[in-house]
Every structure is written in structure tokens, then in C-alpha cells.
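Module 6 notes. Inverse folding takes a fixed backbone as the condition and produces residue identities as the prediction. Think of it as a translation problem where the source language is geometry and the target language is the twenty amino acids. Below is one complete input and output pair. Work through it position by position during the lab.
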């Protein structure tokens, strides 16, 4: 800025002109404003500190609440996905130990222990669709349907009239559905059966299911074929007569 008296360049903080000695009035006004703003600034700082001090408990509580929510979310996520993580880990293990696991699966099939075969496969999460286990794909599908059919036939018949405790309609429906599922799976792979490594085991499953149907449901030969060709309602009507209304 310039001195109003001599026109020389002077600083805003100079109280007098260093060239002519005249009082710098603008500097006085600036100094007064600076003191005012400094004072206001100190007051504001004091209020901020006071406000922070008063709200520290609230802020801490809010932070703790946020951390608890995050922790709860993580715990829920882990719980919900624990089964999935375990499933994936077991599947990777099955691929690493495929030679050992295949030996065990083969043993169950050789012993005609189809329930054990299915249980071992499910326990170890063996992926039958992977190349290492591809040979078991058909026999696994049929063994799963076989176990369901045998269980539904035996449970429905053995409980008889007492099936009402578990729901008569459900018992009849389960039995009909179990038998239908087995024959559906068998017919789906029948064309490939002659070339399948486990052909004998799959034929054995069919024979065992038909023995169970003959013993528990009184169906064999032409009567069994007629039953299989009938409608869902006709099947369930027949099963109700055998299981409930003897």
C-alpha cells in the first residue's frame, strides 16, 4: 500500500511511514480488526472445546454402537455361511483325496451297501460330476432314488394305521413319490446301463426295490406294471388301501 502523505510503499502493519513519519491510519484499523477477530476466534475455540467435552460420552456411545452393529453383522454372516464354507472345504478335500475316497465308494458298492454308499458320498461332499468321480454319476443318482424308495415303502407299510400320527396323506404321498422317482431315474439311464461300470449294482437295486414292493405292497409282474402306468390318484388310492385300510 502507499503512504497517503508521501506516496511511498509501506506495509499494512507499519504504524508510521518509514519515509515521512506520518501515522498509518489504515494500519491502526487493521490492528484493531485483527485483535477483534483473534478475540472472537478464542471464544469460538472455547465453545468448541466445551461442546466436545459435553458430547464425548455421546460420541463414544455412538462409536461403540456402530462397532457392535458391525460385529453383529459379521457374526451373522459367518454363521450363515459357515455351512457353505465347510461344504466348499470338504469338496476341495474330496478332489485331493479322490483315490482314497473312490476306494471307499467302490467298497460300499461291492458290498451292495447302497445306504452306506450314499451316506459316505454326502458326508465327504464328493462331487460326482467332476472328472475324478464321473464313473459314479449314474450309480449315485440311482442309489439316492433307491434309498428314498426303500425308506418310503418300509416306513409307510410298517407304520400302517399308525401313519396317522405322521399324517396319512403325507405317508401315502411319500411312498408313491419314492417309487416313482426310482423308476424315473432307472428309465432315464436304461439305455446307458449295458455300458456302465456299475451295471450289476444298478440292476441289483431294481431287483431289491421290486422285492420290497412285492412284500410290502403286494405288487409284482403285470400288477406292478399296471400300477406304474396308472395315474397319481390311482396309485395313491391303491397305497391307501394297502397301508391304511387292510
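Target side of the pair, the amino acids:
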Amino acid at each position: 500500500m502507499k503512504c497517503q502523505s508521501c506516496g511511498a510503499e509501506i506495509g499494512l502493519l507499519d504504524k508510521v511511514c518509514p519515509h515521512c513519519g506520518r501515522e498509518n491510519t489504515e494500519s491502526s484499523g487493521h490492528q484493531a480488526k485483527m485483535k477483534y477477530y483473534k478475540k472472537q476466534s478464542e471464544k469460538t475455540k472455547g465453545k468448541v472445546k466445551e461442546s466436545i467435552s459435553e458430547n464425548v460420552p455421546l460420541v463414544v456411545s455412538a462409536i461403540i454402537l456402530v462397532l457392535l452393529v458391525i460385529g453383529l453383522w459379521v457374526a451373522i454372516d459367518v454363521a450363515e455361511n459357515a455351512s457353505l464354507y465347510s461344504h466348499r472345504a470338504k469338496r476341495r478335500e474330496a478332489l485331493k483325496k479322490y483315490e482314497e475316497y473312490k476306494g471307499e465308494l467302490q467298497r460300499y458298492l461291492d458290498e451292495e451297501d447302497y445306504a452306506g454308499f450314499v451316506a459316505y458320498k454326502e458326508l465327504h461332499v464328493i462331487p460326482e460330476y467332476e472328472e475324478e468321480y464321473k464313473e459314479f454319476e449314474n450309480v449315485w443318482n440311482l442309489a439316492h432314488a433307491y434309498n428314498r424308495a426303500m425308506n418310503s415303502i418300509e416306513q409307510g407299510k410298517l407304520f400302517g394305521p399308525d401313519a396317522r400320527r405322521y399324517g396319512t396323506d403325507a405317508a401315502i404321498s411319500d411312498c408313491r413319490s419314492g417309487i416313482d422317482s426310482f423308476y424315473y431315474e432307472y428309465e432315464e439311464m436304461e439305455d446307458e446301463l449295458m455300458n456302465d461300470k456299475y451295471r450289476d449294482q444298478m440292476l441289483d437295486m431294481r431287483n431289491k426295490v421290486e422285492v420290497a414292493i412285492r412284500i410290502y405292497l403286494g405288487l409284482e409282474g403285470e400288477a406292478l406294471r399296471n400300477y406304474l402306468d396308472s395315474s397319481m390318484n390311482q396309485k395313491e388310492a391303491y397305497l391307501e388301501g394297502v397301508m391304511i385300510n387292510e
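Reference fact for the lab report: DSSP finds eight helices and no strands in the chain.
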